[in-house]
Amino acid sequence: MAFLQGVKLAFTILALATPSWAIGVAPGQIQNFVTFGDSYTDSSYYPSADGGYSWPTWAAMYGDLDLYGFARSGATCSNLLTYRPFPPIMGWQFPAYLNETRNGTLELNSNETIYTIWIGTNDLGVNALLTGSDAPTTSIVQVRQCAVDVLNMLYESGARNFIMQNILPLDLTILYSNYSYPNTYWNLERNTTGWNVHMTELVRAGNEITSLKLDALLPTLPDAHIASFDSYGLFTDMYNNPQNYFNGTAPYNVTGCIHSCVYSIDSTAAPACTITNGTDADSFMWYDELHPSQQSARILARELTAVMMGEDNQWTTWLS
Q1: In terms of CB atoms within 10 Å, which end of the chain has fewer, N or C?
Q2: Angle at which helices 94-102 and 140-156 pack, to 10 degrees?
Q3: Can you say how many angstroms the Cα of residue 91 is from the centroid of all Cα atoms in its chain?
Q4: Contact 59/304 with Cβ under 8 angstroms?
Q5: How far apart are CA 137 and CA 156, in angstroms?
Q6: Could you give the CA distance from residue 202 to residue 239 in angstroms, rounded to a whole number?
Q7: Taken in order 132, 133, 138, 143, is the CA torsion positive or negative?
Q8: What gap in Å lies between CA 142 and CA 146, rounded to an integer?
């Protein structure tokens, strides 16, 4: 009997152990979040690339969390792989974070802080993998390895809680759709069907590569809690079932955008821009030809806040 009571006590202790013994984060555990990424996540200016507040700003409000945003518009994972004249994660964002933590500007309790990584849009897109980058030997394998390396470097710096967001279905954006038109991001001729097919494959391959590389990394990260957030699945569901997400006063619209600018090829004429205002805007999935709308940002924030609050979420798989 004494032996059985001892076994029961041991299991009780295990059940009440610190979060590092469990999968995921506990409700109320996370007080801060730190973001790395591109314009989809950049909270450093207003209005952001989606015409309003970026999703981290909404999440900070929804969850009463402290936000520390290092994501910057235009960023890639590494400019050594896919160069763009913007602050990449590897060359600017991560060093800026390290500098602030080492000089005492930023002091965060690792148990109460979660780190989000959402990168890839610019690595895969125009002037990068889709059309050819300055480093022609760069492949989708390398740019997704880079994203996983970011998580590993954060872990080595002391971080323990992470959300890795996969790439949303870029082939559903106006820029990379098969019905695209000359716009702010690309106003030259192109094969829209070819772009759409190529981007579809890049995104799907990139997400699968990321998943496999995360699985391989997990055994080397004791005490880490890593959530894989399915941005691809969420945005695909928004596209296919807009009635479940959008509540504006205009008809649901997942193939157009709030701020559309149509250019004329081989012309110096100003673009013809159309802007949707007021509550009609909440019916749109996209703000412009590349960026999600404010309503999409709020939806994403709602889902990610649930993850950070330790709640069940259909788009999230805790890997550790």
Answers
A1: N
A2: 10
A3: 18
A4: yes
A5: 29
A6: 19
A7: negative
A8: 6
Q: Answer whether 148's CB lies under 8 Å from 214's CB.
A: yes
Q: Are strands 253-257 and 284-286 parallel, antiparallel or unpaired?
A: parallel
Question: Between 294-308 and 55-63, two packed helices, what is the crossing angle to 10 degrees?
Answer: 50
Contact criterion met (CB below 8 Å) for 76 and 140:
no
The tens digit of pLDDT for each residue in 122-179 reads 999 999 999 997 888 999 999 999 999 999 999 999 999 999 999 999 999 999 999 9
Q: How far is CA 214 from CA 84, 163, 207, 208, in A?
A: 26, 12, 11, 10
Tell me which residue of 164, 50, 66, 180 sits closest to 125, measured CA to CA. Answer: 180
Please state, for a pLDDT cut of 90, what percent of the chain lies above it. Answer: 89
What SS3 class is residue 208? helix
Both tokens assigned to 168: 């949303």
Domains of the chain: 22-236+293-313 (3.40.50.1110)
List the structure tokens of 236: 């695909």
CA distance 226 to 318: 6
Query: For residues 295 and 315, what is the distance between their CA atoms, to the nearest angstrom?
Result: 18
**Cα separation of 311 and 313, whole Å?**
6
